[in-house]
């Protein structure tokens, strides 16, 4: 295959000079965060774990709500805490729990999940493992038409919004997409986020599964971002930002689909939407350190002591009070207090056995 002249490559060469300038301004901002903001060097592993936990909850709710699911974040969190049940009553619950498990897997194992057919089939199958209605087709390419249709209020079809790849052509086109992406990562001079957007759009246009294509595309987006070292994807939800901009998402997708497989394919609408969402992730991530969010610098036990101390404010407390209240070993309490003293969040009063502590008054604490 001559990948240099392949359709997926050619459409990345159709940009005007003005569009190229806009694209690379966005990419420069995103990569500025990627390259200069050393997340793992400033946030403790326990803190990253807490943030990632929150992202998994948020992303699972958002990705499914984009497709019509009705569960809110609180309900999703309850499901997360009870995933060991393995039996869920409603379709909404079944879909969300499958996404929760699969996104957790992606975040934990992204470095060892290759972008190939078997991985995509596995992600789809795992995502739908609890969904009764999807039992027939999970982890398998579609067997019938899944074109996007416009319907009137009575449910009658009045037009076709988009007609994706026919079922019998899906294996061929998916293999071409995967082979092109493998080639492009090695031999193309295009930025990895441009390649990612191109890959995700083509996947959505092929629409390879009977159902679950949008959700699988967002799992793949997280996987690719993490593999390309955009680690802020684990602390700011991509799916939530898409949900908040759902109208723009579908508008960009529809505009790009309108020229799909024509002589002049226009990838720009979806590409710009994709890059702007990733830029929003980067902007929100950097605020964790630029704003007064010092709690993100604390371990789980340090945070527990801080929250307890803050609840007492302005009362004084002793080391013994903290040990009794939190049940931590004395050395752990001492270490937590020292950390908060170093951060100017606590102040020490007295000496020896008479030593007491209290939360710093407003204005005394340092701003991070």
Automatic annotation (TrEMBL):
Residues in Fido domain copies: 115-276
UniProt entry tagged with the keyword Nucleotide-binding: yes
Presence of keyword Membrane: no
Active site: 207
Keywords: ATP-binding, Nucleotide-binding
Site features described as Important for autoinhibition of adenylyltransferase activity, chain residue numbers: 67
PROSITE patterns: FIDO
Ligand binding (ATP): 211-218, 249-250
Annotated GO MF terms: ATP binding
Pfam families reported in the protein's UniProt record: Fic
Protein name: Cell filamentation protein Fic
């Amino acid at each position: 295959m001559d990948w240099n002249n392949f359709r997926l490559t050619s459409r990345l060469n159709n940009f005007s000079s003005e569009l190229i300038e806009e694209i690379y301004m966005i990419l420069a901002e995103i990569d500025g965060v990627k390259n200069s903001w050393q997340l793992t060097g400033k946030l403790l592993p326990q803190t990253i774990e807490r943030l990632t936990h929150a992202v998994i909850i948020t992303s699972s709710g958002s990705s499914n709500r984009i497709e019509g699911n009705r569960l809110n974040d609180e309900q999703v969190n309850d499901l997360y805490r009870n995933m060991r049940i393995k039996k869920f009553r409603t379709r909404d619950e079944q879909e969300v729990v499958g996404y929760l498990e699969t996104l957790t897997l992606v975040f934990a194992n992204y470095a060892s999940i290759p972008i190939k057919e078997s991985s995509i089939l596995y992600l789809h199958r795992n995502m739908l493992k609890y969904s009764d209605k999807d039992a027939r087709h999970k982890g398998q390419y579609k067997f019938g038409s899944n074109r996007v249709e416009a319907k009137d209020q009575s449910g009658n079809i009045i037009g076709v919004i988009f007609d994706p790849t026919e079922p019998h052509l899906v294996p061929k086109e998916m293999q071409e997409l995967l082979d092109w992406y493998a080639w492009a990562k090695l031999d193309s001079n295009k930025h990895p986020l441009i390649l990612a957007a191109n890959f995700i759009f083509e996947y959505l246009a092929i629409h390879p599964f009977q159902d679950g294509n949008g959700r699988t595309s967002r799992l793949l987006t997280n996987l690719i971002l993490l593999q390309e070292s955009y680690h802020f994807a684990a602390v700011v939800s991509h799916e939530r930002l898409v949900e908040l901009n759902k109208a723009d998402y579908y508008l960009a997708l529809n505009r790009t689909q309108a020229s799909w497989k024509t002589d002049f394919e226009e990838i720009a609408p979806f590409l710009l939407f994709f890059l702007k969402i990733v830029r929003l992730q980067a902007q929100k991530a950097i605020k964790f350190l630029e704003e007064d969010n010092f709690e993100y610098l604390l371990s789980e036990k340090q945070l527990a002591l801080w929250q307890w101390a803050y609840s007492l404010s302005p009362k004084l407390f002793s080391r013994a009070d903290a040990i009794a209240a939190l049940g931590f070993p004395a050395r752990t309490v001492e270490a937590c207090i020292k950390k908060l003293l170093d951060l100017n969040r606590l102040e020490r009063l007295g000496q020896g056995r008479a030593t007491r502590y209290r939360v710093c008054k407003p204005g005394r604490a340092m701003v991070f």
